[in-house]
Write a structure and sequence with these properties.
By secondary structure, the protein is an alpha+beta fold. The chain has helices at 45-53, 57-66, 143-154, 187-195, 200-203, 207-214, 261-267, 422-448, and strands at 2-8, 33-39, 71-79, 82-89, 96-105, 116-124, 127-135, 171-177, 254-260, 280-289, 301-309, 318-322, 326-327, 332-338, 349-354, 365-368, 373-376, 381-385, 395-403, 408-412, 416-419. Helices cover 19% and strands 32% of the residues. Strands 3-4-2-1-11-10 form a six-stranded mixed beta sheet, with helices on one face. Pfam families: Exo_endo_phos2 (PF22669), SKICH (PF17751). It comes from Pelecanoides urinatrix (Common diving petrel).
């Protein structure tokens, strides 16, 4: 289950609550992956430079919401105001490989990244999947420019060997502030149609729908029905369309589309392609806007999808677990085994993470698999971790094996308990007691003063 968000946030700070946006209260099964594409994230030069060194406020915000629920930030890519974040449940980490990011500038002849696309691709259970968050040129008259820019973004190539081109991925998701408008109809007819919930009257003059009938490269992209109000342009903190002097005509600027490669290849050979042959299918369960969010002049749009995959990978590359009972009072051992074809490296490491960790660098400590190895046989290897490195307070933790060659976590243990360092805790308690015993004197002198 994949939940995809697109939102032009208009340089605003994160809202107080995103429960409904992420459907955290939904009664069905929880999501396996969240893909969050934002446009117009505050990108004043000072903000942008500090965000390059540290996570930006939006990334921190979504990590704070999702990490306690068992999701980690798998990857992110930022270009000026464009930000793309992907979060996944721990259980899927060993089956996600070859994660790569890319960005394409199209604004101001490609010199300035205020428009363009940011992309993350991966192999998920052996299937190639690509996510593309775009911000295309504005204004009614720029349809051709939008299409030209999108074609340019589609042509970009990831760096690295054997990575398919964008359109060669098994599934490609395209979303963002695509800026397509409603042509021909006047503002009063558009607003009347919206007020009467007769959105279908506007569909045939939606510029993206019109372009899909003419442009071959768009015809393979699928979109759910636009059964929600156009998401642009609103007065801030309201669900009232633009009352400023410009009185912008409402439009479905914020969209989510997808393309399944197998369907495209076999569409022309009808009758030759049976359901059984298809190893991946995409089902749209929900395509809606969220009217309650008013921090920008756009409303966010979400798509909830079912991805059905016949796994081409079913075993993790590395299996690992903590040996015996772990305690912060003594050195501990980690056992792991790798499949024969695993491309290990001297730079591989095993990290100790709190269960609600945020991303791959959010470890409490780590051990190098070669430097800290203490035993090895054909079935498994053992690595030690010093007691000095283990958090004194103990708690619930996970072990993750990070592959330098694959640039990803390739094995994750079950959660396990670490017993606290009782000696240190007792020492701390006795120090607290002593300071408490001296407290009355301090209070007295404080009162005299």
């Amino acid at each position: 289950r994949l939940h995809l968000v697109t939102w032009n946030v208009g340089t605003a700070s994160p809202p107080p609550d995103v429960t409904s946006l992420l459907q955290l209260n939904s009664l069905g099964p929880t999501m396996d992956m969240y893909v969050i594409g934002l446009q117009e994230v505050n990108s004043r030069i000072t903000n942008f430079l500090s965000d390059l060194a540290f996570d930006d406020p939006w990334s921190i915000f979504f990590m704070t919401v999702l990490s306690p629920l068992g999701y980690i930030k798998l990857s992110s890519v930022r270009m000026q105001g464009l930000l793309l974040l992907i979060f996944v449940k721990h259980v899927h980490l060993p089956f996600i490989r070859d994660v790569h990011t890319h960005y394409t500038r199209t604004g101001l002849y490609g010199y300035w990244g205020n428009k363009g696309g940011v992309t993350i691709r991966m192999s998920l259970y052996g299937h190639t999947i690509c996510f593309m968050n775009c911000h295309l040129p504005a204004h009614m008259e720029n349809t051709e420019q939008r299409l030209d820019d999108f074609e340019k973004i589609l042509e970009m190539q990831f760096e690295g060997e054997d990575i398919p081109s964008t359109l060669d991925h098994d599934v490609l998701f395209w979303f963002g502030d695509l800026n397509f408008r409603i042509a021909d109809y006047g503002i009063h007819f558009v607003r009347e149609s919206i007020n009467n919930k007769r959105y279908n009257l506007l569909w045939e003059k939606d510029q993206l729908n019109m372009a899909k009938k003419k442009e071959a490269f768009l015809q393979e992209f699928i979109e759910g029905p636009l059964q929600f109000k156009p998401t642009y342009k609103f007065d801030l903190y309201s669900d009232v369309y633009d009352t400023s002097e410009k009185k912008r005509k409402p439009a479905w600027t914020d969209r989510i589309l997808w393309r399944v490669k197998n369907l495209c290849q076999h569409a022309s050979k009808e009758g030759e392609f049976s359901e059984e042959e298809q190893t991946i299918s995409v089902t749209l369960n929900n395509y809606i806007s969220h009217m309650s969010y008013g921090i920008s002049d756009h409303k966010p749009v979400t798509g909830t999808f079912g991805l059905e995959l016949k796994p081409l990978l079913s075993d993790p590359l590395v299996t690992l677990y903590p040996e015996g009972e772990w305690s912060a009072e003594h050195d501990v051992l980690i056992s792991y085994s790798a499949v024969p074809e695993f491309p290990s490296s001297a730079w591989d490491w095993i990290g100790l993470f709190k269960v609600a960790f945020r991303h791959v660098n959010d470890y409490d400590t780590y051990a190098w698999v070669e430097d800290d190895e203490i035993s090895s046989n054909k079935d498994s290897k053992q690595v030690y971790m010093s007691a000095a490195e283990i958090p004194d307070m103990g708690g619930e933790f996970l072990l993750c094996y990070y592959s330098n060659n694959l640039q990803s976590i390739v094995g994750i243990s079950q959660p396990f308990q670490i017993q606290p360092n009782r000696t240190l805790i007792e020492k701390d308690l006795s120090q607290e007691e002593n300071s408490w015993m001296q407290e009355p004197d301090n209070l007295e002198s404080h009162n005299e003063f």
